[in-house]
Specification:
This protein is an alpha/beta fold. The chain has 2 domains: about 160 residues, NAD(P)-binding Rossmann-like Domain (Rossmann fold, 3-Layer(aba) Sandwich); about 90 residues, ProC C-terminal domain-like (ProC C-terminal domain-like fold, Orthogonal Bundle). It has 11 helices and 8 strands. It has an 8-stranded mixed sheet, sandwiched between helices. β4, α3 and β5 form a beta-alpha-beta unit. The protein is elongated and about 70 Å long. It starts with a strand and ends with a helix.
């Protein structure tokens, strides 16, 4: 299978590297279409596939085309690649807010899959939610899921509308985690720790808590009960969070992200 990645930015490079690292594709099976000469030159030196500057050089031979460009670039891109689209090609879009029907109509091809990855995909720890049009066969869907799995975990959803909540939770979610981590790091520094000590204290605490959660059958509430002894330090912190309605504020933030995701999708 020949895979063409359109867009050699962060996510385009992430997919190319992940496919190679996961041994689901070889360099001779990977094409990258990149319009920036400087970026194209840098990609050529990475040996992550053959780099092209014009669609006519690579589109006709591609079995899977991954659309990894900014949503605002779609009109021009679709105009450039449409002459080289053929019915058996499968299109995988990671463009936020661009619906599958819009892609299908613009390209004259109904084999469209849409995915919402997140930034930890860069280190193989990503979370990707994806959906597809009915014209995509089960075999094609499994092949694409195997590719996406090289970047982390995946969830398939029947309804494309579910990608908006995925955007609000897993897509934007890493920023929420870093926001909370940053607040704790600032607190640690105020309490006398150096910057490096504060970063280690907080990052290891988050990593340990997540790993412990994943390796147990307990839910978050049970783990909280196990840490928060009556009259202790954790209970004091949780009481402060509760009085500030932090739980509701986090949920309100996620709802705001969902609202914006729906707006961007038109």
């Amino acid at each position: 299978m020949k895979i063409l990645i359109i867009g050699g930015g962060n996510m385009g490079r992430t997919y190319a590297r992940s496919f190679l690292r996961g041994h689901v594709a070889s360099p001779d099976q990977l094409f990258i279409l990149e319009k920036s000469p400087d970026r194209a030159e840098a990609l050529s030196k990475e040996n992550v596939g053959t780099v092209f500057g014009h669609p006519e050089e690579c589109m006709p031979a591609a079995d899977l085309v991954i659309l990894a460009v900014k949503p605002q670039d779609t009109s021009l891109l679709f105009e450039q690649i449409k002459p080289y689209v053929h019915p058996q090609q499968v299109f995988l879009s990671i463009m936020a807010g661009v619906k599958m029907e819009s892609i299908a109509n613009a390209l004259g091809n109904q084999k469209v899959i849409r995915a919402m990855p997140n930034l930890p995909a860069q280190i193989g720890m990503g979370m990707t939610v994806f959906s597809s049009m009915d014209e995509v066969t089960r075999i094609e869907l499994v092949l694409v899921q195997n590719l996406l799995n090289t970047t982390g975990k995946t969830i398939y959803v029947e309804n494309e509308a579910s990608l908006d909540p995925a955007t609000a939770i897993s897509g934007s979610g890493p920023a929420y985690v870093w926001f909370f981590m940053n607040a704790l790091m600032e607190s640690a520094r105020k309490m006398g720790f150096s910057t490096s000590e504060a970063e280690l204290l907080v990052s290891q605490t988050f990593k340990g808590a997540v790993d412990l959660f994943n390796k147990s059958d307990y839910d978050c509430e049970e783990w909280i009960r196990r840490v928060a002894s009556r009259g202790g330090t954790t209970e004091a912190a949780l009481g402060s969070f509760e009085s500030d309605k932090l739980h509701q504020q986090i949920q309100s933030g996620a709802e705001a992200a969902l609202k914006r995701a729906i707006e961007l999708g038109g």
